[in-house]
């Protein structure tokens, strides 16, 4: 990693702590400079203002997620194991970093969610393309039925993941782990209906 990348990542990591602790309005570029040890001019070189820095955090998190998503997709594992890895990875930052959890909580529970201007459609389409490819792999491997609706399966996985994330952040409920992921797939693959001969 270059010096520029190290400096930028350091700014973002400190900014996550500050936004998580003090919120958007309570955080200043001066505060981030003092806590990070990076001069204000250097911070403004990477981020022209606080709004761009706030957006930069999301871009930073998404870039890391997309890199990991591609690595999972390109691995030698079968489709089910890949999808399980994706669900687990989505929770790693929240499980390991209380500051990231607090930062995300601020987004859910304050006006901060209206500050960030992200192309959500583009972000989701990039994820969708990779995950749909993995689902197709599962069909080819005989793990999933060939007649399934791939998009509905995708939406089911993402929907479950998002709800568990939200409940963990807002209600401090249990986050996802390997046992929960296994139960999710068992229920999705078996279905919830009773097989009765009529």
Describe, in plain words, how this protein is organized in 3D:
The chain is an all-alpha fold. The chain has a single domain, classed as Tetracycline Repressor, domain 2 (Orthogonal Bundle). The protein contains 10 helices and no strands.
Summarize the structure.
This protein is mostly helical and 198 residues long. The chain is built from ten helices and no strands. It is 72% helix and 0% strand.
SSE diagram, text form:
Layout: H1 3-22, H2 29-36, H3 40-46, H4 50-73, H5 79-89, H6 92-96, H7 98-109, H8 120-140, H9 150-171, H10 178-190
CATH superfamily: Tetracycline Repressor, domain 2
CATH topology: Tetracycline Repressor, domain 2
**Could you state the oligomeric state of the chains shown?**
single chain
User: Could you give a short account of the major beta sheet?
Assistant: none
Key structural traits:
198 residues, Tetracycline Repressor, domain 2, 72% helix
């Amino acid at each position: 990693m270059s010096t520029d990348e190290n400096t930028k990542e350091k700014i973002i990591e400190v900014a996550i702590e500050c936004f998580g602790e003090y919120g958007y309005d309570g955080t200043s570029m001066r505060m981030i400079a003092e806590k990070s040890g990076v001069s204000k001019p250097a911070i403004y070189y990477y981020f022209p203002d606080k709004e761009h820095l706030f957006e930069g955090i999301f871009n930073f998190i998404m870039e890391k997620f997309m890199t990991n998503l591609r690595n999972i997709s390109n691995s030698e594992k079968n489709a089910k194991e890949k999808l399980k890895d994706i669900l687990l990875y989505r929770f790693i930052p929240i499980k390991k970093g209380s500051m990231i959890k607090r930062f995300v909580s601020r987004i859910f529970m304050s006006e901060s969610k209206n500050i960030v201007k992200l192309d959500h459609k583009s972000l989701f389409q990039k994820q969708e393309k990779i995950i749909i490819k993995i689902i197709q792999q599962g069909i080819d491997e005989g793990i999933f039925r060939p007649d399934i609706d791939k998009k509905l399966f995708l939406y089911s996985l993402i929907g479950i993941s998002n709800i568990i994330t939200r409940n963990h952040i807002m209600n401090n409920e249990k986050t996802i782990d390997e046992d929960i992921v296994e139960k999710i797939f068992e229920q999705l693959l078996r279905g919830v209906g009773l097989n009765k001969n009529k």
